[in-house]
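We modelled the chain as a single entity of 100 amino acids. Its sequence is:
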Amino acid sequence: MIKTKYNQCEYDTCVYFKQSDDPTYLLLYVDDMLIAARDKTHVQKLKTQLKKKFDMKDLEEAKKIICMEITRDRGSSRLWLSQENYVLKVLERFNMAEAR
């Protein structure tokens, strides 16, 4: 990613970004990847670059990454992340689903 002029985030080594008027972000975690940008052409350009170097599947719009569910409201330009289902699974695993 460094060769393609992306910078690695100093706070999280799994996050890369390309600074511009419309920044593009690439988040990597083991075999999961999320690309975020306001302009879809930036996303497509990065996907094309990555496909030349790596064998990868394009799952289109992300609905989930690293046990976080992603919900969008494009009309109001809002995005929510939720770990509710993950928390419920953990509570069940430790027999605490009914705890208050």
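As a brief sanity check on the tokenised model: The CA atoms of residues 34 and 61 lie 9 Å apart. Residues 1-58 form one domain.
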